[in-house]
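User: Could you check the structure of this?
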Amino acid sequence: MTADLDALPPSPPSDVDELLVRSASTYTDLPVQATSQRSLASRSFAVIAWSIGTALDYLSLVTILAVMAALPVIQLIAFGYLLDVSGRLAAGAKFRDTLDWLRPAGRLGLAIVAIVIVALPIHLLTHWGRVADLVSPGTPQAEAIRALSVVLVILAVPYLGWAWARGGRVRNYLWPQPIIFLKRGWRPTTWFSAADRLWDFIASWRLGKRFWLGLRGALATLIWLLPATVIIAANRQGETGLAGLVGGLAFVAMGISLMYLPMLQANFAAENRFKAMFQWRRIRSDFRRAPWAWLLAMILSLVVLPIPLYLLKIEPPPPELVWLPTWFFIFLMLPARIASGLALRRARSKPEPSGKWAFLSCWTVRLLMPLVVGTYLLFVYLSQYVSWDGLQTWVQQHAVLVPVPFVGI
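Assistant: Sure, the predicted structure tokens are below.
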């Protein structure tokens, strides 16, 4: 009997069985789908937070460079940093290693914002205390306001110091961790280690290296801009004839110099040698390997980004606001330096070109390059009539020199 039952064919699955299997598979997939949705949401939030943080760090970096560029002599540090950015990219460094001031500038900017926020109620209380003294001197209200301002100062100093000692990030300001502060805040080793980290933070800026790089880069650039001084001398008295002919020849020579100068500056910063600023034959060889990237970088460096900044040179700003228009100069010229470095890196990562397409590309870009440089020189020529510094605009060129429109070297 049992053998007969085993010999029977299996019964087809019923609708109930199919429903049970489908339900089981559906409930099994639910945790996986929920986990994937949560991971996608967390990744999206992380990307958004990173983007906002990077944007704020970049704005802080631009502000710090703008303040440096507005100060005589110190402006060479800003110029050296811009050269170093293009040089590192040309040498093949990663983008995050190139902008090594980005994160420290964000921390420093956040610290300044925290100081302003903390000092604001203290300043208001101090002001209200003075007003109360004027209205009714010696009243308990005035004394209470002054005492409260003193208490806020006493609380603000350890609050800011403890936030900086733990890293100076946003979360360190939002949550001061009072229990950990009570456990570690009284120990001298806590503040000694914080002082060591502060010193490392200052040393990471390498201000001396950037100053030396900016000084040598500025001197070498001025040598390439010698035709600009000839133009100034030829037009100083508004003479014509031979002086005009000499000025015209100097104008052409300056155009030829500008075809090489942005890439020569990147080459100089990449090799950190003064002679590298005059290796124009090597730059010509690099050009043949990536002519279109070269053209794009030159358009950004000489036309798209620097030309609108000449509008800020029409009227000089008040001395206390010199850094404000300089902020726009840095904001636009830093991407120009990045473009030059990327173009030179692309050229040096490609083999020697060959074939008809390479020949056609090189000569097409060569024919377009005088148009790019000529457009830039046209605006420089016009700026001498509308800029407050007149003929000095031929030397104070923010596209290739210190990125400040109002304070020369």
